Amino acid sequence: EIMSFQGHDDRVTSCAFSPLVGDRKSGILTTSMYDGTVRLWKNLTGSEDEEFRHNSTYLTCIAFSPEQPPDERAGRVLAGSFDGSAIIWDIESKKLLLKLGVEIEGTGGWRVEKIRDRHEDAVVSCCFHPAMGSERAITTSLDGTAKIWNTQWGNCLATLEGHAQAVNGCCYSKDGQQVYTVSSDQTVREWMAGAPYTCLTVIRGHYGPIHQCSFATSGKHLFTVSEDRSVRAWLKVKLEPEEFNPDERVRVGSQHFAVSKSHMQGEISEFFQWHQVALFASTHALRCVAGSTGEDNEEIACGGADGSVFVLRLMLPGDY
């Protein structure tokens, strides 16, 4: 642990590193539905930007868009709500920009909001696609599903189904080719980020509900936090064709799986398996995790059920 932020009066429900490096809105954004506040922390000093703090009794999760200034879309925040809805707002003005899954009909003073797509239970996690201008995002819900959205128009592109219980967290891979979801069923699922949105594999190892997942700087390690009070780091290993054995049973990690890719000579298959490479046992009941956008270290910010926020750095043999 290299830093902790104390201030929330109850459990932290979401945290995210701001991509606005050098901007006055840079830092770590956290929200707690339980103490009713959204707060911005300076990750160099650990102090809170008290002028930014505002009250919100309904926001359960937050995520930043990847754009940087002078792009006018920079500073957009995707937020999920306990009523199953998701919105996009601006961090500078705090104004609402778009409601996902809602179509507005009418002109002038007569406007009607029609709900086209919405989760059937609380939205508990959300994430923008990492590519600037992609206009894609994902939300997950206690209803056991995840939804992929077009963030320009607000329409739902796909609903991901497969988890046996609530889907608590999500993230994209660094290249945006895969989506990851974590669930109370104690599993992590890897999906194709584009059509047909197929589930590629299931990662096992946690002994309690998994609350969130995130990649950090390199994009190599997937971090997950769980009710079992652990932070785990996972590494996707490429296999040689002769090593591929889809019938091999594993207790920690994933089974061998194949991914097909288009090639000039037709489709080719690559083979992979997820391995657990690190485990951090915490005294805190962990609820959320966010990967740093910095370039030097594999750092993550974690939020606890007791309101604590702390930062960890992954250091494997050879990193010293």
Automatic annotation (TrEMBL):
<feature type="repeat" description="WD">
    <location>
        <begin position="5"/>
        <end position="42"/>
    </location>
</feature>
<dbReference type="InterPro" id="IPR036322">
    <property type="entry name" value="WD40_repeat_dom_sf"/>
</dbReference>
<dbReference type="GO" id="GO:0010992">
    <property type="term" value="P:ubiquitin recycling"/>
</dbReference>
<keyword id="KW-0963">Cytoplasm</keyword>
<dbReference type="InterPro" id="IPR019775">
    <property type="entry name" value="WD40_repeat_CS"/>
</dbReference>
<dbReference type="GO" id="GO:0005737">
    <property type="term" value="C:cytoplasm"/>
</dbReference>
<protein>
    <submittedName>
        <fullName>Uncharacterized protein</fullName>
    </submittedName>
</protein>
<feature type="repeat" description="WD">
    <location>
        <begin position="160"/>
        <end position="191"/>
    </location>
</feature>
<dbReference type="GO" id="GO:0043130">
    <property type="term" value="F:ubiquitin binding"/>
</dbReference>
<feature type="repeat" description="WD">
    <location>
        <begin position="52"/>
        <end position="99"/>
    </location>
</feature>
<dbReference type="GO" id="GO:0043161">
    <property type="term" value="P:proteasome-mediated ubiquitin-dependent protein catabolic process"/>
</dbReference>
<feature type="repeat" description="WD">
    <location>
        <begin position="203"/>
        <end position="234"/>
    </location>
</feature>
<keyword id="KW-0853">WD repeat</keyword>
<dbReference type="GO" id="GO:0005634">
    <property type="term" value="C:nucleus"/>
</dbReference>
<dbReference type="InterPro" id="IPR015943">
    <property type="entry name" value="WD40/YVTN_repeat-like_dom_sf"/>
</dbReference>
<keyword id="KW-0677">Repeat</keyword>
<dbReference type="InterPro" id="IPR001680">
    <property type="entry name" value="WD40_rpt"/>
</dbReference>
<feature type="repeat" description="WD">
    <location>
        <begin position="116"/>
        <end position="159"/>
    </location>
</feature>
<dbReference type="Pfam" id="PF00400">
    <property type="entry name" value="WD40"/>
</dbReference>
